[in-house]
Design goal:
It is a single chain. The chain has one domain. It is built from eight helices and no strands.
């Protein structure tokens, strides 16, 4: 449906005003986290054509998407710890990982031990394997894109 230009301008004006009001209510840290998340999503969309790694169908993409979002807003979760743990490899494959959490190996294992009990070691290895699969698929995708150019 095609809207008249004056209605489009009105919608754009309301959107900017609403965004400014919402931003004024946020703390500086929350504004930075929102800006980082938006920049990451733009980068993913520009580089891969989709707005998230999960949409690309990469194995472990939902873990990386959630981990990047949690790292951006400072939330400690299994996903953010896993992305922190694999940050060096993910950066090498072109994933925009910003600041990471301290001591992710032990913290991830401890978190899994509290939720999984005796299965913590198996769950820990499964998280690492999913991130490795994601990094391998991302590398393959990156090499395909460079060959196509």
């Amino acid at each position: 449906m095609k809207l008249p230009d004056e209605i489009r301008r009105a919608f754009a004006s309301y959107g900017r005003q609403g965004g400014k009001v919402r931003a004024a209510r946020m703390s500086p840290e929350a504004r930075r986290a929102t800006a980082r998340r938006a920049a990451t999503l733009r980068w993913i969309r520009e580089r891969f054509g989709k707005s998230s790694f999960a949409e690309l169908g990469l194995p472990g993409g939902e873990i990386v998407d959630t981990g990047l979002a949690h790292l951006g807003d400072g939330t400690v979760s299994a996903e953010s710890l896993a992305v922190s743990l694999a940050a060096q490899r993910l950066r090498r494959e072109g994933v925009p990982v910003g600041a990471t959490l301290q001591d992710p190996e032990n913290r991830l294992y401890d978190l899994l031990a509290t939720t999984s009990g005796d299965l913590a070691h198996a769950r820990y290895l499964a998280w690492l394997q999913q991130l490795e699969s994601f990094a391998d698929a991302s590398r393959y995708r990156r090499l395909q894109d460079s060959d196509a150019r």
